[in-house]
Amino acid sequence: MIKKCFLVLLLIGGLQFIQAQKIALLKYNGGGDWYANPTGLPNLIAFCNQNIETKLDPKPVTVNPAGPEIFMYPFVHMTGHGNVIFSESEAENLRNYLLGGGFLHIDDNYGMREYLISALKKVFPDKELKELPASHPIFHSEYQFPNGLPKIHEHDGKRPQALGIFDDTRLVLLFTFESDLGDGWENEEVHHDPKEVRLKALKMGANIIKYAFEN
CB within 8 A of 27, min separation 6: which ones? Predict the structure, then answer.
């Protein structure tokens, strides 16, 4: 309860509270490369600070799903290609974090979905991922994405999907699939994406950041 109350206080004021605020990267177990896209988050932070008036610390921090420090960070990002495992204590801690006001963005870097679905069942046994319509505010919080989640990398050629878990009407978890925003956030020389593709990924990332802090 103390953790939940602290996080609620931490989130009051939305983007105005981001003075030197840090965002976090989730270090999970299971063998998946949680550390993928090392230049992605720093580039997204720089873009947000330059374009949507945030004051985020330029260096994200790494947090453990079971650690109390996760409650210090209103926004947590998770990515990777492979297996994801949450222990019972990790699942409970994540659930308390999210229901207490936190926000988790999970970006499938390709090959993560089948493992993630099982892991999320531990966190929210009674909740299902639901696809967000293109009209959802997260696609319009700063930049306009009238067709919903943009396609950044082809992967299996499927349409991009933004899937969410809600606590009542509040979106607490966003899972982006068949888009790979994180690759688009990386330095140009990593994936050689065209400038317009990288900008599209960064704008969508900025929308997610802004939405998470304002809702």
Answer: 34, 35, 62, 63, 64, 65
Q: Per residue in 174-211, pLDDT tens?
A: 999 999 899 999 998 877 789 999 999 999 999 999 99
Q: Residue 28 sits in a domain of what CATH number?
A: 3.40.50.12140
CA 140, CA 126: separation in Å to the nearest integer? Answer: 29
Q: What range defines the domain where residue 24 resides?
A: 2-214
Q: pLDDT at position 112, please?
A: 86
Alpha helix segments (H runs only) across the chain: 2-11, 40-51, 88-99, 113-123, 181-185, 188-191, 195-214
Tokens, residue 90: 């990790």
| pLDDT at residue number 114 | 87
Of 183, 192, 215, which Cα lies nearest the Cα of 204?
183
How far does the chain reach from its first CA to its final CA, in angstroms?
20
Domains in the chain, number:
1
Contacts of 155 (CB under 8 A, 6+ apart): 110, 178, 180
